[in-house]
Specification:
Spore Coat Polysaccharide Biosynthesis Protein SpsA, Chain A; two-stranded antiparallel ribbon; about 20% strand; eleven-stranded mixed sheet; 14 helices
Length: about 375
């Protein structure tokens, strides 16, 4: 029996039918349970999810808000709970740590409902079992960002397999041809990723005093903790795959501020895409927003796609779709085209190195 059972915590809203794929995929690769925090108590998916034997579904209601007040991070997050979804995610993750620990789980992974844990060489269950022989208290998994190839997409976990390769994970030499190919694409330049590039993390639940810091990492405040980064397991981020998903995301987010937690400037941290997407959707002009989606999110030119695949800038990962198709596809089949090098785990001492095609690596650019 696997003594290192792993669970997933997610805060979500109006995920729709892709929630079924999210659950089925992760059960298929060896996760055991889900703590799903529905940010809207009237979410139509809540009752369906609650009926699943592997799901603990929690509504954002007065009961949840009362439980938040008992958490150590409540004082620092309370002022932001009404307007900052990440503040709610932090408290939901902190609460899920307590719940998962009480339920006997060993590890808890925090990802969003538009993300998948990608383990091309072994099951997730085998990965977490292997961590039992190591002193690590948290493990970071770098992320790939999806590239949709058309406007109309339903279940993106089944329909999308094209991803931006994190620049520092591209084993190919950075040449002028590569840099210029990236610069020609507004979907890739000036910011290669439209969203985060810092990965997501799992935490060992037996590690005392560990807690989430933001939505990407776990730490032990004021004391040392043992952290590692996996070189063989990743997070696939299916952000804004399909125009309707893009439109719905920014309608739901509404007119959020230019800063997170009133101090972290969004444009400086992740580029201007998130703010510009907010603004174009806020106009209510769907065709203008569709043009923005086609120019900044999707790549629908097959010639360009093939060029970027050849340069290692993009890669295809068919494995999630294969797993979702049924038992004929094993979690260990079809690792995709991306060359993944290096050992299994490495210690982390801060933010991972991030090579930006647009600014480094080209001759004369340092």
């Amino acid at each position: 029996m696997n003594s290192a059972r792993a669970a997933i915590v997610t805060t979500l809203r109006n995920a729709g039918d892709v929630l079924d794929s999210f659950i089925d995929y992760h059960l298929g690769i060896g996760f055991s349970h889900f703590y799903l925090f529905f940010d809207d108590a009237n979410d139509p998916d809540l009752s369906r999810a609650a009926a699943h034997p592997a799901v603990t579904a929690i509504a954002h209601d007065s009961n949840l808000r009362n439980r938040w007040r008992e958490l150590p991070q409540y004082p620092e997050q309370s002022a932001f709970l009404g307007r900052e979804v990440m503040a709610r995610q932090v408290l939901n993750t902190e609460l899920a740590m307590e719940m998962a620990r009480a339920d006997g789980f060993a590890w808890l992974l925090h990802i969003d409902s538009d993300e998948l844990f990608y383990s091309p060489f072994e099951s997730a269950a085998a990965h977490f079992e292997s961590l039992e022989n190591q002193p690590l208290e948290t493990v970071q998994y770098m992320n790939y960002e999806a590239v949709p190839e058309r406007d109309e997409i339903g279940d993106f976990f089944r329909e999308v397999d094209l991803f931006k390769v994190p620049p520092h994970l591209n084993p190919r030499k950075v040449t002028w041809d590569l840099v210029e190919a990236v610069r020609r694409m507004p979907q890739l330049h000036p910011n290669f990723f439209n969203f985060y590039a810092s990965g997501k993390s799992a935490v060992r639940l037996s590690a005392a005093a560990m807690r989430p810091t933001g939505v990407h990492h776990f730490v032990r405040p004021d004391k040392r903790w043992e952290a590692g980064q996996s070189n063989r397991h990743f997070v696939l981020h299916y952000a804004c795959c399909g125009f309707e998903n893009f439109w719905t995301k920014y309608v739901t987010l509404g007119r959020f501020a230019d800063q997170w937690w009133e101090k972290y400037d969004i444009a400086n941290l992740v580029g201007r895409f998130h703010l510009e997407a907010r603004d174009i959707v806020a106009t209510g002009e769907r065709e203008a927003a569709r043009a923005f989606y086609r120019n900044r999110v999707s790549i629908q030119d097959n010639e360009r796609i093939n060029e970027l695949l050849a340069l290692g800038v993009l890669s295809r990962f068919p494995q999630p779709r294969q797993i979702l198709l049924g038992p004929s596809s094993s979690p260990l089949e079809g690792g995709g085209r991306q060359e993944i090098a290096g050992g299994d785990l490495s210690p982390t001492g801060g933010a991972p190195a991030r090579k930006n095609y647009a600014r480094t690596g080209a001759p004369g650019e340092g």
